[in-house]
């Protein structure tokens, strides 16, 4: 009867001639393929894609500044793309202002209007000391001018919903196709009194109102992160600071 022979194996993963012989005879398993080529290929593809898309975030002025650095045909392609985007934006810019709402017209001006476009409602505070609500009013005006295809509206919360808690203002309601797609109870869900245009843009991207690649979208770091003029940075006066998310 043949007795089993213990074959010495110091390191089965090592790349040695002895291990090659053992693998050939099935003593140790084949060495798994190295992940290095796969990783290198992925990095090369990523670098190639980044290079091909290097002009994606450039506007017309920035493209014109690159005339001496880039191929003219390549630049012309992006110029035409930007012009098409601008034309599309202008043709769909229907609103371009903040619309004050009245409760009797809410269904028509918001719910029904959302069948044609995204509608964002800012339910404002009744107190002039609510810094977040005053800040959002300024942001609403800037966003309405920038994204004319979206309808931005405002209504005082207690005039819209009887006994609506002051502590829950400002409230943002996002409507589309007759339904509320998202609600934001106070700016604490964003960045509080530091909330900026870029933060609201991320909200718009999240609900599908605008695309992340939209040439109008400000990038973090390019935007001045200060409060709009006329908004003080003092503490907001609220009835309750417990951060309740409910409407009750």
Low-pLDDT segments, ≥5 res: 221-248
| Helical stretch tally | 8
Radius of gyration: 29 Å
Topology as a string of helices (H) and strands (E): HHHHEHEHEHEEH
Mean pLDDT value? 77
End-to-end Cα distance, whole Å, is: 85 Å
The shape, in one word, is elongated
SS elements, strand count: 5
Share of β-strand residues: 5-15%
Percent helix = 25-40%
Class inferred from helices and paired strands: alpha/beta
Main sheet summary: 5 strands, mixed
Strand line-up across the major sheet: 1-3-2-4-5
Description of the molecule:
By secondary structure, this protein is α/β, with parallel strands linked by helices. The chain is built from eight helices and five strands, in the order H-H-H-H-E-H-E-H-E-H-E-E-H. The chain has helices at residues 17-24, 36-52, 60-65, 72-92, 106-112, 131-146, 157-160, 197-207; strands spanning 98-100, 119-124, 151-156, 171-176, 179-185. The protein has a five-stranded mixed beta sheet with strand order 1-3-2-4-5. Strand 2 (119-124), helix 6 (131-146) and strand 3 (151-156) form a beta-alpha-beta unit. It is elongated, with a radius of gyration of 29 Å. The protein starts with 16 loop residues before the first helix and ends in a 41-residue tail after the last helix.
């Amino acid at each position: 009867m043949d007795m089993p022979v213990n074959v010495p194996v110091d390191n089965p993963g090592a790349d040695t001639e002895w291990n090659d012989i053992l693998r050939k005879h099935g003593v140790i398993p084949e060495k798994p393929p190295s992940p290095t080529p796969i990783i290198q290929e992925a990095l090369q593809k990523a670098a190639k894609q980044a290079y091909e898309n290097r002009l994606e975030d450039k506007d017309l002025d920035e493209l014109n500044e690159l005339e001496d650095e880039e191929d003219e045909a390549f630049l012309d392609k992006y110029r035409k793309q930007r012009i098409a985007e601008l034309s599309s934006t202008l043709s769909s810019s229907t609103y371009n202002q903040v619309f004050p709402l009245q409760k009797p017209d809410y269904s028509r001006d918001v719910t029904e209007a959302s069948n044609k476009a995204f509608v964002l409602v800012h339910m404002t505070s009744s107190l002039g000391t609510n810094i977040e609500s005053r800040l959002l009013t300024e942001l609403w005006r800037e966003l309405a001018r920038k994204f004319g295809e979206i309808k931005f509206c405002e209504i005082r919360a207690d005039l819209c919903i009887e006994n609506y808690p002051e502590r829950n203002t400002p409230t943002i309601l996002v409507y589309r196709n007759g339904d509320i797609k998202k609600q934001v109870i106070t700016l604490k869900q964003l960045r509080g009194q530091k909330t900026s245009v870029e933060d609201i843009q991320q909200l718009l991207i999240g609900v599908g109102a605008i695309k992340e690649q939209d040439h109008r979208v400000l990038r973090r770091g390019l935007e001045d992160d200060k409060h709009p003029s006329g908004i003080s940075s003092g503490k907001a006066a609220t009835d309750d600071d417990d951060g309740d998310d409910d409407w009750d």
